Amino acid sequence: MLETVLRREQDFGTPAITGNLKEVSLQIDGQTIQVPEGTSIMRAASMLGLAIPKLCATDSLEPFGSCRLCLVQIEGRRGYPASCTTLVEEGMVVTTENKRLADLRRNVMELYISEHPLDCLTCSANGDCELQDTAGQVGLRQVRFDGYDKTQANKSADTSNPYFTFNPDLCIVCNRCVRSCEETQGTFALTVDGRGFESQISTGLNTNFKDSDCVSCGACVTACPTGALMDNSIITMGQPNHAVITTCAYCGVGCGLKAELKGEELVRMTPWKNGKANEGHACVKGRFAWGYATHPDRITTPMIRASINEPWRKVSWEEAINYAAGEIKRIQAKYGKNSVGAISSSRCSNEEVYLVQKTVRAALGNNNIDTCARVCHSPTGFGLKQTLGESAGTQTFESVADSDVILVMGANPTDAHPVFGSRLKKRLRQGAKLIVIDPRTISLVSTAHARADFHLPLKPGTNVAMLNAFAHTIISEGLQDKAFIAGRCDSDTFKEWLEFILLDENSPESAATITGVPAQTIRAAARLFATGGKAAIYYGLGVTEHSQGSTAVMAIANLAMITGNIGLSGVGVNPLRGQNNVQGSCDMGSFPHEFPGYRHVSDTATRSQFEQAWEVKLDANPGLRIPNMFNAAISGSFKGLYCQGEDILQSDPNTQHVEAALANLECLIVQDLFLNETAKFAHVFLPGASFLEKDGTFTNAERRISRIRKVMRPKSGMADWEITQALSNALGYPMQYESPSEIMDEIARLTPTFASVSYAHIEELGGSVQWPCNPQNPEGTPIMHIDSFPHGKGTFVPTKYIPTDERTNKRFPLILTTGRILTQYNVGAQTRRTGNTAWHEEDLLEIHPHDASDRGIEDGDIVQIASRVGQIAMKAKVSTRVQPGVVYTTFHHPVSGSNVITTDNADWATSCPEYKVTAVQVSKVESYASEWQTHWLIDDKKQHEFLTSAEQGTHEHA
């Protein structure tokens, strides 16, 4: 188990050199070593176990050479060069320790300490301070100078950020914070003001950390070698004494994190340097927003009630499980076996969602299992399966470093996938070209030291027309990769597609009238994509959450194939998954038509394999999708639902429709951390476990299976997999797993792409592995489709543009589209219970100045947004980030009710909702008292009264 003792991870200056570089032989302190050309002396010395003193150097940043502590002596050279910036040479003879070097280092350190307070015993960094350690390393015992003004101590500390404090009194101006903000995060929010002794770290003119461009990723805090930048939790609680390596439970990047603790009390979360997805970086959510796990709103005791109009009653686990199982049995006996089903969570582990789908199929006897991937990336699974033969992205995140052209479509990486966004920005600063296709001006269009070469602000709902125009340009101008098409793609489907794509309806001129983007701009961007070198496509929910979501995904795959951008580092089709385990929940068989590994339930051989393993007869007919469940509930044929970790009432479209469906259920079982919106209609509440309370695995957007490890015991006494197992046993289907590792072993036995996956093997490979991981690929598959596709040749699919049924008119003249913001996550259940609310207290409606002026709306006014299905109210934010005719909002706060106004329109193939295109009217109002807000506030008050009565024991079971 990767549990660590706490000291700062050792840093060695220049990052490790990789690749087939020439070897250089040199001598350091009498020892001979061979290292790759381009290695620094500091790193070469570290490989010999020699720790050269340093302060400004770290292997996370480029060498800087400012602290002058890492001086060395080189035979035949004058002076004492910095070892972090001096590269090795053949035959070099280096001395790292002698009296002259020791004297120089002590003198330098003495100057640092003379400007630094000597209150180490009471400093928050005591025990984890590089300045303190280095002073000891160089043997400093006295300070002859006194430049520190004690009267100014702590007077200028910046406490504006909710998560960390900047105390300039403790700052040695080593620049590590500035460099980490530039090199690692790419925000360039910090600088050094002044010269000489007047130098100081600054966040800009008259700004503090909270109000500056700082995105609170914590890179500066991690990099700081003193107590100048310090986690508030460390200031309050002191230094942790042990750590556990785990995986972040927010977005689909899947960052490795180090949970640092005192006993079971979490003190600090830091990014894990060996995390393959993040390599020592994190964002404001993963680094700091973990307080929800211990928030007082957590429900930790099971509760039941016979009616949603009755108060909750706290009960034992045994009573809750037996009651839930009894209700399901009663419903099936009365209405038939297909009258019940389940929804699994993309926030839960692979092992947990596997057990939910197994319970549905083996214990309930049907295939009525679906997952929240239905409402986000189900078109990705369908579209990529049809074209490339596998329902997943093709690359590793690291491969963006080899991209020459990057196309970002319907995604906002810096907000929704910020650690990958930082990787992408770094490549742009190195010279890669960027094409952004998005109705809104996302941050990447113009960011620090990088700007998009093309921003194509197309009208919402016209993705397919744009992608077809790209392909039309490439083919008609002869820019396609003919060799790749001939050797890797199916000739018959290509010929059919070729005839289709050359039709005039797919030309940039036709697309211009549909998308609103000039034809010449479309052509220029397409040419860049086809001729600019290695080209990668990254896309998000702005592609999938449309009535033609699956069509757009297939069009993206077509585009990658005709340009040969498959099977290499730096290219590929890369879906940016929204939640931490969306990929995993799909892999585990959480769709009603597929077993784990994307194999259809009607396939006799596959079904027989599962029947033999599970010792039960399985249904060969696909079950109900989430929208079908809602419709069946309203019609009266679907009466029971087990909902694991998903707030469908807030996250799914057309809230009134979902509410009507939930109100018609006879038994709704909710398993979650908090009493969410869906739980208002629940009859059984089973308290779930946070990611800090469980063992298992998550699978991120790059197919990386990473371990999550228990940091603390489940507050309710049970992990989520144990709850599902207990429910299955009570339903009459026995499960006797002893640990999540046993569940993964079963998954591996039954799923070809996971055949070689086990916890032991993941540990051997450094904590993660990318599937397929099987006997043919025992160490995983970072890049897919190198030599061939799973079904042989790549398949082209004609992608005809069909306009959405959701149209604007005089009554609803604007198009509403939705998205996420950096500091909040999904429905906000987690992040709203953390300090992140300091940046985003409520959802706002972005509206263009032209549309705002027409309606007499000013920034901060309360506006009503009305669609064909409902109306809500929120504050307006007048912004040029949206184009005229388009408005935009987030959906992180339930009181906003964003999905009250989204419609039932959905993707033709997968039923993924069309969140991104809703015709609306916006008008200024005087208050928030819309029908939805009033309803929400009244209902929320009633539910809290029910919860309070349960907490007080008024209705507690004797």
Automatic annotation (TrEMBL):
Q: Where is the 4Fe-4S ferredoxin-type domain?
A: 162-193, 205-233
Q: What family does the entry list?
A: In the C-terminal section; belongs to the prokaryotic molybdopterin-containing oxidoreductase family. Belongs to the complex I 75 kDa subunit family.
Which GO molecular function terms does the record list?
Answer: 2 iron, 2 sulfur cluster binding; 4 iron, 4 sulfur cluster binding; formate dehydrogenase (NAD+) activity; metal ion binding; molybdopterin cofactor binding; NADH dehydrogenase activity
Keyword annotations of the record: 2Fe-2S, 4Fe-4S, Iron, Iron-sulfur, Metal-binding, Oxidoreductase, Repeat
Q: Does the keyword Iron apply?
A: yes
Domain 4Fe-4S His(Cys)3-ligated-type residues, every copy: 100-139
Q: Name one GO cellular component term.
A: oxidoreductase complex
Domain 2Fe-2S ferredoxin-type: start-end pairs: 22-100
GO BP, sorted A to Z:
formate metabolic process; respiratory electron transport chain
Q: What is this protein called?
A: Formate dehydrogenase subunit alpha
Can you give the residue ranges of the 4Fe-4S Mo/W bis-MGD-type domain?
Answer: 241-297
Task: Please state the gene responsible for encoding this protein.
Answer: fdsA
